[in-house]
Amino acid sequence: MKTLFVRTGSLLGVIVAVAGTFFVPDAGLAQSTQRSGTLVITGQQEQAPTIRINGKSYVDLESLARIAHGSLRFQGTQTILTLPGAERAGAASAPPAPAPKSPRLSVGYLSAQIEALTQLREWRAGLVNAVQNSLPISESLMNPLRRTADSKLELAIAAATTEEDQQAAVLLRNEFTAMQQMSDQYVASHLAATYIPPDSLENSVQDQKITGCEKALVAMESTKQFQDAAACH
Length: 233
Hints:
By secondary structure, the chain is an alpha+beta fold.
């Protein structure tokens, strides 16, 4: 803290520098003038006369405001000197406002979604195994897997309590629907005695869509935030 002594009118005051704004309480100090001098501010061409009283230098407050290109105002018994840049300095020192928090998926929903995705993976794994090994892809094989996945899906939907949960649940239901469509397609091909190549899933657009949506849903589990995904539509 820097203290400057100045003369205001016929009284002497004390300027206390606080964050670029100077508060000047008027307090009479009876001293005798010894000799005069000049105050020069670095970078400014103007000057202000000073006086020395008992070994200390004083400058007229109005002159100080003039050469410093500041402003004076009066508040009760205080005289307030504000220098250029004081408001900007105060604003710059203020801490930045905290960034708004992104809505997060609830813990209850995420837990239910994990279980639902686990059952969907098992359903898909059962279908992939049957295709690759040329096994009969019948309803008796697929239906138990479908029913288990469906029950876990309904639990996840019931656990969706926030708007973000509900948006994620829509994508999860779309994932279930896509898996149902692919499973039904292979069951129908088996019933029609259509030959199913063991590598038919490798280039399946439907299967790529299912795996892409699953990855998007898993990513939401790690970030705990909803993020829409084209693969889930």
